[in-house]
Design goal:
Layout lengths: L4 E4 L8 H16 L8 H10 L1 H9 L8 H15 L6 H8 L11 H9 L4 E5 L3 H11 L7 E2 H4 L6 H10 L7 E5 L2 H9 L3 E5 L20 E3 L2 H13 L1
Parallel strand pairs: 1-2, 1-4, 2-3, 4-5, 5-6
Length: 239
């Protein structure tokens, strides 16, 4: 592979969204709903995340104008709090919504990205908006060369525009771009656009009892983590 840039899915691939959201939710419940012993922070994280893809679909199909993920996350959060009969003022809702800006990286992410960055530029190709990804990078120490993603190209994955416009911004043919993700659907969409693909296993994305689909496509690279991906790419360069 003669790839010139590595582009990364972020939620689930680079950062552990479930643990991060559950941790913030636990503290939020203690402050705003101390009597609600029935609330499970991990279940709350799962239910909030479950609204992620459906909330983007009207934008993908053109029935809603482009809207930043921070706004969609907040709309989804307000609906979820209402379902759970949790009352909160705007300031409290905003505080919990900001949890997405400070998600923890997987243990290998910073070292892996740092190693890959020695070989080529690294950047997120995420559905997150720019301020979210920038704040996350500073909180987690993610060494991006630039911030790319849905808000930059005005298109949400897995639409073809999200991948092709990103390659165009970088003045690269799609085949010179490596899409790195823990999600087969993301890689399938990128591959259909001509990008090269790397699957990273994240068996704990949905928790210890969650599904671990593993790689289901004919991806160019399959690795355990980002440190191994760095080693594979370095070996590819040497050969």
């Amino acid at each position: 592979m003669d790839v010139r840039v590595a582009l990364f899915d972020v939620f689930g691939t680079v950062v552990d969204w479930r643990s991060g959201i559950a941790s913030d939710a636990r503290h939020w419940f203690a402050a705003h709903a101390p009597d609600r012993v029935d609330l499970d922070p991990f279940e709350f994280a799962d239910r909030w995340r479950a609204r992620y893809q459906p909330s983007m679909q009207p934008i993908r199909d053109g029935t809603r104008g482009f809207t930043a993920l921070d706004v969609l996350h907040r709309e989804n959060l307000v609906e979820l709090l209402s379902e759970l009969d949790l009352d909160a003022d705007d300031e409290a809702v905003d505080a919990l919504n900001a949890a997405w800006h400070a998600l923890p990286p997987w243990p290998d992410s910073v070292a892996g990205l740092t190693a890959i960055r020695q070989l080529m530029p690294v950047a997120p190709l995420s559905n997150g908006n720019v301020s979210l990804l920038l704040n996350m990078a500073r909180n987690a120490g993610l060494p991006w060369d630039t911030i790319l993603g849905a808000q930059v190209v005005r298109a949400y994955k897995p639409t073809p525009e999200s991948y092709l416009r990103t390659a165009e911004l970088l003045d690269l043919e799609p085949g010179r771009c490596l899409m790195v993700a823990a999600h087969n659907d993301d890689l399938a969409a990128a591959q259909a656009c001509g990008l090269r693909t790397a699957f990273v296993r994240r068996p704990l994305e949905h928790g210890p009892g969650g599904a671990d689909p593993g790689p289901t496509g004919d991806w160019d690279i399959v690795v355990r983590d980002l440190v191994e991906l760095g080693a594979v790419l370095a070996q590819t360069r040497r050969s």
